[in-house]
Amino acid sequence: MILPIIAYGDPVLKKKAKDISKDYPNFDVLLENMFETMYNAYGIGLAAPQIGLPIRLFLVDTAPFADDEDLNREEQDTLKDFKRVFINARITLEEGNEWAFNEGCLSIPDVREDVFRKPNITIEYVDENFKPHKETFDGLIARVIQHEYDHIEGVLFTDKLSSLKKRLIKGRLANISKGKIDVDYRMRFPDQKKRR
Known about the structure:
Elements (H helix, E strand, L loop, with lengths): L4 E2 L20 H14 L4 E3 L9 E5 L11 H8 L2 E13 L3 E7 L2 E10 L2 E7 L5 E7 H14 L10 H15 L9 E3 L4 E2 L1
Parallel strand pairs: 1-9
Antiparallel strand pairs: 2-3, 3-4, 4-7, 5-6, 7-8, 9-10
């Protein structure tokens, strides 16, 4: 089932999410619905707070990035095959020189800005079978993971912008929270409490 994506301005997007256990109710259905919702919105990642659940769960599928002709064959293949579920994740290390990349977010449609992030991360998490992992990622995969991880920490990419950039997009963000935006996927807007 395609779920509505929570729009900028809803308090759930600013909450630090809670860990879950393997007996979380209807977990398999939740995962299926989240993947369906993400693909329906042409996303490459989706975090549980974006569907209104303040739990430490996010999904990533970087396959759409594999079409980028600026990447070499190996990078394209890596991105094409990277699909993961991250539960109760903790980034334990971020290192390297920060680099800018133009980011967007399904909860903040039609707003894209350069965000600086470190290129290498180490993350501990459990997968959909609640099997523990500790892995290191770099490049675009690390960037997507960091963006989704921020969601479970109650942080949006717009929080990482300079005060000048924030002022420049303030009106656009206000319009999003009021539902004054056209999107081709279902959203729930905090100022209207209505579903599209």
